[in-house]
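Q: Here's a chain of 301 amino acids. Please give me its 3D structure as tokens.
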Amino acid sequence: MVDSILQLEQVTKQFAGSIVPAVKEITFSLAQGDILGLLGASGCGKTTLLRLIAGFEALQGGSILLHQREIARPGYSLPPEQRNLGMVFQDYALFPHLTVAKNISFGLGKLAARELQLRVGESIELVGLTGLEHRYPHELSGGQQQRVALARALAPRPELILLDEPLSNLDVQVRLRLRQEIRSILKETGIAAVFVTHDQEEALSLCDRIVVMQAGRLEQIGTPQEVYNYPNSRFVADFVTQGNFLPAQIVGNIVQTEIGDFEIPAEILDHSSDRRASNLAINSDHPANSTINLKNPLALR
């Protein structure tokens, strides 16, 4: 069994003055070396959840464990600087008056000079910025600045990296290239990561597992293939796959729709307690993998 580096149990956060929680009863775990995506529309609670993991916010319910060590519960929160986490922000958060090398070395002050130099050099090489050590942030492109931010987060060799929509400020071509570079870098280091994004394609291509969120709740968790091919709710089918919806009627083991009839697999009939509503998901990329869920609305894609 793969060890979990991060565990969330029934994590809940409600801001003062709000009548609904920003995050409600979220439970999941993250295996060592995996990349977990928090995917959802703006305001769904994904960044709040990331800030709870980082220690920037206090939770009202549940608990957070890092390597089986409790780092947060109601009334207790281990300070962020003691959690051994790396953070990559949406706006890079680089120091404009420091060079690339000095930005990366900022969090390595306790290392001896020789070790500091080696660690910075390794980080610069890892993100492909060799030769740019003495440039300042304003002398770099957006993609290069994001690489510096990633190198700075990786340099202290954290247990976990948190990335808050790190590619959203970049143009499309740079984003496409960097998403694969970030995945390759994280896999090479073996460091687990939590990656916040509202971009479905980004989550599906970069992450090992995806948590789909809506209105502070966890809608579905699974591999990209599971979430895309087998959405377990109308929201997931619509948000992740941009599905089309149409009404259906169930007669025996047949779902009748305006575009034709579809047979319900026996295993679904055997495990379903509600046959009045149907969810037919036809994957246009892989029609043979089409699925039916009798408890949710009909989805066609």
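Q: Can you summarize the key feature?
A: The two ends are 35 Å apart (CA to CA).
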